[in-house]
Specification:
Elements: E1 5-11, E2 24-30, E3 39-48, E4 75-83, E5 93-96, E6 103-106, E7 115-116, H1 134-147, E8 154-157, H2 163-174, E9 178-183, H3 186-194, E10 200-203, H4 209-216, E11 221-226, H5 230-237, E12 240-248, H6 269-272, E13 276-279, H7 289-301, E14 309-313, H8 318-327, E15 333-337
Parallel strand pairs: 8-9, 8-11, 9-10, 11-12, 12-13, 14-15
Antiparallel strand pairs: 1-2, 3-4, 3-6, 3-15, 4-5, 5-7
């Protein structure tokens, strides 16, 4: 490996507003050989999601942001190319928080944990990064454990064409719910209508969300599955039905300004409507992952559940991939294939 350089994206500045390519610097460094107990991994795919924005902002609630000059944070999959660790061998497929780089070294725990992986439920290995991974488990647990849908419920899903939202829409429909999706461009709205068959779809960038919800949900919203926070959450809270359940899953609209979280003004409607609003941390539900992947796998195999991957090629595309997910330009889970 002595003649191969490792391409690494460092954080060169913090965004004042929206993320740009100028916030990162691509450097090439000599690849080190693993020492005793270590493994050298070649990254194959990285997954890019909106919360990564907080890594170069305030660091979110934890305040843990990437320092200037350090490697940009990120997770993905790779293959072991050289091992001096008895628990791993060359050729093993692995997953971990490698960061934005082509090669990484770890002892399996430090500087980051490493997990051996294999395809789940007959899906491609990259599905472990979304539908057969955290996104799939989040949709499954958020819907069935938190929202607890009943036949006939009216459910509204924001970011409905996203990795989590699209799965929630499909499972809710299969559960006998009337599903209304909110998305941010016509391509996504058309897909939600034609491919997922949603009863109503709202383009929040061109339509009045409040007016459309009043027309589509004359008796109120039974379940609101929130992936965006901000004004849309506030609007939905103003139109909930008696005994509604609000699931707090994500806050895409807030990540660009994570130092100034925008809370809902309509929260007291929870009192009047005797409703519940609950957030959840998916890894607290790890005991449910096996059931989630089995059920999701069955639905995919039966042709009842579909998903999208939006794949960019090459390490050079990583900043663009982050900008795409923050602007909503991506269509499906945003992946960057490195090798």
């Amino acid at each position: 490996m002595s003649n191969i350089k490792n391409a690494r994206w460092l954080v060169s500045s913090y965004p004042k507003d929206e993320v740009t390519a100028d916030n990162f610097e691509l450097v090439y460094e000599q690849i080190s050989e693993p020492r005793d107990g270590e493994v050298l991994i070649q990254a194959t795919s990285l997954v890019i999601s909106p919360p990564l924005r907080m890594a170069i902002g305030t660091g979110g609630i934890t305040g843990n942001r990437v320092k200037l000059g350090d490697l940009m944070r990120g997770s993905g999959q790779g293959i072991v190319v050289n091992s001096r660790n008895p628990h791993f061998k060359a050729g093993d497929l692995v997953a971990g928080p490698f960061g934005w780089q082509e090669y990484a070294i770890t002892d399996g725990e430090r500087p980051f944990p490493l997990e051996k992986i294999s395809p789940r439920a007959g899906q491609p290995i990259t599905a472990n990064l979304h539908v057969m991974g955290a996104s799939g488990a989040t949709a499954y647990v958020g819907l069935y454990d938190i929202a607890k849908p009943k036949v006939g419920d009216v459910i509204v899903v924001s970011a409905a064409a996203g990795s989590v939202g699209a799965l929630v829409c499909q499972m809710a429909k299969l559960s006998g719910c009337q599903v209304i999706g909110i998305a941010g461009n016509e391509k996504k709205c058309r897909w939600l209508r034609s491919d997922l068959g949603l009863s109503e779809v709202i383009n929040y960038k061109t339509e009045n969300v409040g007016e459309r919800l009043r027309a589509a949900c004359p008796n109120g919203i039974d379940i609101y599955f929130d992936n965006v926070g901000g004004d849309i959450l506030d609007t939905a809270l103003g139109q909930i039905a008696q005994g509604a359940r609000i699931v707090l899953c994500g806050a895409t609209s807030q990540y660009e300004g994570d130092a100034n979280w925008h809370g809902p003004a309509n929260y007291f409607n929870l009192v009047y409507k005797e409703a519940t609003m609950q957030g959840f941390y998916i890894f607290s539900y790890a005991h449910r992952f096996k059931d989630a992947y089995r059920r999701l796998g069955d639905l995919i195999a039966n042709g009842e559940l579909i998903y999208n991957e939006d794949v960019l090629e090459g390490v050079e595309q990583l900043p663009d991939a982050l900008m795409r997910v923050l602007s909503g330009e991506n269509f499906g889970t945003q992946l960057v294939k490195l090798s």
